[in-house]
Amino acid sequence: GKLVGLELCNFKSYKGKTQVGFGTAAFTSIIGPNGSGKSNMMDAISFVLGVRSNQLRSRNIKSLIYRGRINDEDDIEGGNDMDSNDENDIDSDNEIDNDSQNDDNQAYVIAIYEKDNKDILNLKRSINGNGSSSFSVNGVNVSVNQYLQILKEENILIKAKNFLVFQGDVEKVASQSPLDLTNMIENIS
Amino acid sequence: GKLVGLELCNFKSYKGKTQVGFGTAAFTSIIGPNGSGKSNMMDAISFVLGVRSNQLRSRNIKSLIYRGRINDEDDIEGGNDMDSNDENDIDSDNEIDNDSQNDDNQAYVIAIYEKDNKDILNLKRSINGNGSSSFSVNGVNVSVNQYLQILKEENILIKAKNFLVFQGDVEKVASQSPLDLTNMIENIS
Amino acid sequence: RQDLFMKAFNHVSNNIDEVYKELTQSRSSPLGGSAYLTLEDEEEPFSYGIKYHIMPPLKRFRDMENLSGGEKTIGALALLFAIHSFHPSPFFVLDEVDAALDNANVDKIANYITKHRGPNFQFIVISLKNMLFERSDSLVGIYRDQNVNSSKILTLDLRGYAETV
Amino acid sequence: RQDLFMKAFNHVSNNIDEVYKELTQSRSSPLGGSAYLTLEDEEEPFSYGIKYHIMPPLKRFRDMENLSGGEKTIGALALLFAIHSFHPSPFFVLDEVDAALDNANVDKIANYITKHRGPNFQFIVISLKNMLFERSDSLVGIYRDQNVNSSKILTLDLRGYAETV
Ligand SMILES: Nc1ncnc2c1ncn2[C@@H]1O[C@H](COP(=O)(O)OP(=O)(O)OP(=O)(O)O)[C@@H](O)[C@H]1O
Ligand SMILES: Nc1ncnc2c1ncn2[C@@H]1O[C@H](COP(=O)(O)OP(=O)(O)OP(=O)(O)O)[C@@H](O)[C@H]1O
Ligand SMILES: [Mg+2]
Ligand SMILES: [Mg+2]
């Protein structure tokens, strides 16, 4: 099978709906300047496959949702500088409205996957208001275990994650401890 | 002041004596293919300034000494493959002689440093047979504390190490814990 | 459980040298380097570990800790690709794995990917180096649209363009 | 002890924003981003910590954990250069700090170094990117001499050559 495309909705730095297609290409490169959103795209792929948010550079699932404004709670504790920022940002009230509108919309990622027999699977993982996530396959809600089982049938083993190499992690793979290496092999066995 | 040049003797991948001059350049780049010895050159600079061997990718001081042959003790436990390597390497006996010749020579690094008043300091740190190291300034043996004091007068604060950024460490500087950051500031105060 | 583990271990162990050689062959070293895995304890593989040994081309055997950044990266990719061949997942996502590589090694990774990609082995690679991304079938360009404070996407199929010489 | 600490802290805290702006200014953002340090506990700086906050140009304020690899690298270099200005050591040695940077940011680092280098501020930089090393005064080329199984060195003073256009 292969990953044919993705749809992101309010995921990390992607506001609203964003679609990306990989078409029939077997080798796709993602390029762009620093801070543009490349690793966030990989986070979207990892998220929709069931990887936990703490491995996606986020404290919790809710911080994966797109945030337009300066609304990190702990940022406000950052001292006076923060207040002066708000003043400069006179349209910030409008911004807040926008933002809460975003918060109304849920955030989700859909992976469009084509199986070897050309069947299409729409794998969707959404973030709910209460910080939990729900899973669906072709529009039908499923439990997380059913979801992971469907992935496993496609040899997508989230526990092993040997096919996802996050930024800065590659060298660690070679110099990991012997026990970690055993673990890695065990996860694929 | 400035670092005018270096002399390495049997240090890491540098066999025998190697000299390098930075001349009057205020911005020097070290370039070369992967595995050629660039980071080893930085290790030589760090070593001569008093940085401990465990921060130079080495288990102990002796592994900083140039090794020509396959002579890692733990390598030999690596299984049959090792034996077949030795066979291929039929001149390995000669190699061993070479190597023990190397071991006769000690290993050292000299940093040639020019003070603001144009005085030259030859800062030397050598590795002794028993795995300890000794320090000398312009040919006169000094204790490690005297050595570090002379460096401190030049604002070379080895404890802070804020002027040495090892390969792969730069991002960690920005995301270090608040207590580590306090430590960093304290070391320069 | 032990049988399954040993099956996986033996598969990877038999493959790793071939993959590593393919990633390290060059004009100056047609054979490439060598790599292998050893079990710290043959009897109880679970409770002990697996040691990974690499010998870059033209070099003496070195412990992992002595290898350079680029040498470790190549060793890591060889291990990942060897493990992948056991239960091949349909795709790989690699985020700037070429950061520590010199141009010669970037070229070797590009060669490996273009040779092994296919309908059942899809590569999605994030890279800042044109020597790697210009070899791909298609590009996904990401930029930040300042007006709406959001990341945006452009896609371009490279297969329509003639090979740049 | 506390006085010395506060003196260092205040110096770095007053400098960090200026250095960060210098490293992040560009045509699209003439002002650059902003950066500052806060003490977690004003009374007892030793026992608590110092928090470092960065706001890349044209972005909302973000916690360190949300920043990208390249954004963190620029933030780290700004902090290192700001700390350096307190008790300036005579030289800096930087080993492939440009690995995560795109070309625009490599150029900014090269500009900063060429502007601040001088008789009392020497930069020794290890790099694989020609956009950085071609800006230096001199080059030290390292290669492996296979015959003697050793690293060897060549030096080249670039100042004699005309600027490449
Ligand atoms: N929940 C969120 N809402 C809005 N923006 C976010 C959110 N989480 C992260 N970001 C933004 O995403 C940016 C980081 O993006 P990302 O890590 O994908 O960059 P990148 O393209 O990988 O860059 P690099 O080449 O430096 O690695 C940060 O600047 C941050 O502002
Ligand atoms: N004691 C030693 N004796 C001989 N060779 C050594 C010794 N210690 C390390 N080496 C060799 O040095 C090489 C690594 O060099 P170094 O880390 O300086 O490379 P580099 O030029 O920084 O490469 P990269 O660009 O990949 O970071 C290893 O391949 C190793 O074989
Ligand atoms: Mg990234
Ligand atoms: Mg290196």
From TrEMBL, chains A, B:
It is found in: Chromosome; Nucleus. Residues 75-102 are annotated as: Disordered. It comes from the Eukaryota. Belongs to the SMC family. SMC1 subfamily. This is Structural maintenance of chromosomes protein. It comes from Pichia kluyveri (Yeast).
